[in-house]
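ok so I'm stuck.
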Amino acid sequence: MSDVRHVLVLPDRDAAEEVAGALGGRLGVDEEPRLVRDALAGEDDAEDAQWLVLLRDESGRLDPGELDEFVAEWDGWREEP
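replied:
not stuck anymore, here's the structure
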């Protein structure tokens, strides 16, 4: 099995939590995604942080284009590995 990961970048924690909650219903993701705060360089303020939703996709079944469209609904994007 490969260790494929997808990184979804969201503007705030609320959006990241909504995306994480919607992944199962919309895209059939079974595993709980990891949420990670990504503070911008030199910034301590939580308002200046992006949030990452990390997904493992060992089977490679998630379509990158579909993930792009999905996360864009929350003003986010998918980072290329």
